[in-house]
Design goal:
This protein is of the alpha+beta class and 140 residues long. It is built from 1 helix and 8 strands, in the order αββββββββ. The N terminus is likely disordered.
């Protein structure tokens, strides 16, 4: 009985953590919607998690020279300020344009060469101890 209750409690915590990121994902897709209207396609890949204030998370993406990309970040935490920046494998920032509106942030990049790039998600400010976030990207 004790094992069953422990298992159910762990399952409940895991489900609530997933819902946290799932809610943030809807905001990330909302951040991408203006670019979809401009002919960009959103990749099925999505990343998410939760971070404390001033924490960062890196995610890796394969980008192709000649394409244009928008990385779109969202959170469901009202009052949180997050950013995303894109770096090449040598640590050089390649952002071309950045937008931020409320819980949404986006950055446009045009990779100078095909290769592995890194999106760094940062929580700058939040009323919560941990802030859920999700990141998607669109290309054309």
């Amino acid at each position: 009985m004790k094992k069953t209750l422990s298992f159910l409690f762990a399952l409940l915590i895991a489900a609530s953590a997933w819902a946290y990121v799932d809610d943030a994902l809807s905001f990330a897709y909302e951040a991408a919607s203006p670019y979809v209207k401009k002919g960009f396609s959103v990749r099925e890949d999505a990343w998410g998690g939760d971070l404390g204030v001033k924490d960062q998370q890196a995610v890796q993406a394969q980008l192709f020279k000649g394409n244009e990309y928008w990385f779109c970040l969202g959170t469901d935490v009202k009052g949180a300020v997050l950013s995303v920046n894109i770096y090449d494998s040598k640590g050089n920032l390649i952002n071309v344009e950045t937008t931020r509106a409320g819980r949404l942030s986006a950055v446009r990049v045009e990779p100078p060469r095909t290769g592995t790039y890194y999106a760094i998600v940062t929580v700058h400010k939040s009323p919560e101890e941990r802030t859920g976030w999700a990141l998607v990207y669109a290309y054309k």
